[in-house]
Amino acid sequence: MSVNPLSTNPHFLQDRIVLARIDNRLIHGQVLEAWVPFVQADCIVVASDEVAAKPLQKKLMAASVPRELPVIIGSLAEIAEFFSRNETSRRILLLFSSPGAALQGYRLGIPFTELNLGNIPGGDGKRRLSCTISLSDDDLSTFHHLETLGVRVIARCLPSDTALDWKVLACGGAG
Prior knowledge:
The structure is a single chain. This protein is α/β, with parallel strands linked by helices. The protein has a single domain, classed as Fructose Permease (3-Layer(aba) Sandwich), CATH 3.40.35.10. 38% of the residues lie in helices and 23% in strands. The protein contains 8 helices and 11 strands. The chain has a 7-stranded mixed β-sheet with strand order 4-3-6-2-7-10-11, sandwiched between helices. A two-stranded antiparallel sheet has the order 1-5. It has a two-stranded antiparallel sheet with strand order 8-9. Strand 10 and strand 11 (164-165) form a beta hairpin. Helix 5 (76-85) packs parallel to helix 6. It is globular and about 40 Å long.
């Protein structure tokens, strides 16, 4: 994929991110078969320190995507740098593996204004809030912080689902 120097419009790249999503599975069938067509994405960007540090996992993940759909996989810092120095006319679907990664990416300069909660698995100290989302107190604090920074945080597993504000979910408004 070729790119040009940064546009003089600071909102240009922000407008090119058609979906920013937390999904611990990152690239998988639901993303490729439901979300990519729904948001008409023509590029997938994975911002993950873990995957970027594992060349084999990175290669396998990229290989799972149809050849005509460009994929960029990098650490949070690399993806922030990509957005800071590049302009693209691509419609980007941006994936994070966790709430903490999304907040760190935002702080590094990855320009998204809405964050979709996809699959966030359970674990120690987490409460199951829906069939696909389990959150810890730290996760809830992260979403509150993102919201104070101007990011709208919503839960929406599939494109056919209704978007639900994260606070409604956290208060038991979905099952």
